[in-house]
Amino acid sequence: MIHYTLRCSAPVHGANPHEFEGWFKDGAAFEKLLAAKLVECPACGDTGAGRALMAPAIPKKNRRGRAAPEMAPAPAPEPAAPPAATAGPMPDQVRALLQKIRAEVEASCDYVGDGFAEEARKMARGETQTRGIYGETSDSAAESLRDEGIDVARIPWVPRSDA
Ligand SMILES: [Zn+2]
Where are the extended beta strands (E) located within the chain? Predict the structure, then answer.
């Protein structure tokens, strides 16, 4: 199972997109559900705007004050999605979304490479500034982080759109 934090930016939520959590069998299953518009916002039922939000590592412990770590801004309205490809492992619109997520992660989070797990723990212990980070880690290391109460999301990392 894989855990994602999702964000609904439907107009009904105004300036505060509704965040909710979802468990999926794996990344591919999530992509399929998203493409099929089956990822539904529990607050407003919107499926069009329900979209993945990266949550690389937001420690749940030792969160100080009410200032949440800076997350990526709500995705800007997208231009009309190209017609969905029905064949192939990844529909164009899903790829485009993942590229968008990647761009947001890269713009708003620090890349910590394979030091991800260590950095996430430091944040959880308050030894370093809490912020969004992303990097690489093994499944087992990610699982350990979750066991320690550190929220980690794994997102499919697609090639950049300008690559
Ligand atoms: Zn909603």
Answer: 2-8, 18-24, 50-53, 58-59, 110-113, 133-135, 150-151
CA of 42 to the centre of ligand 1 (A): 7
Distance of alpha carbon 147 from alpha carbon 68, whole angstroms: 21
CA of 156 to the centre of ligand 1 (A): 23
pTM passes above 0.90: no
DSSP 13: G
- Neighbour count for residue 75 (Cβ, 10 Å): 18
What count of Cα atoms within 13 Å lies in the side-chain half-sphere of residue 18?
17
Condensed to tens digits (0 to 9), the pLDDT of residues 97-122 reads: 888 888 888 888 888 888 888 888 99
7 Cα to the center of ligand 1, angstroms: 8
Distance 49 CA to ligand 1 centre (A): 7
142 Cα–ligand 1 center, Å = 28
Nearest partner of 95 among 9, 25, 155, judged by Cα: 155
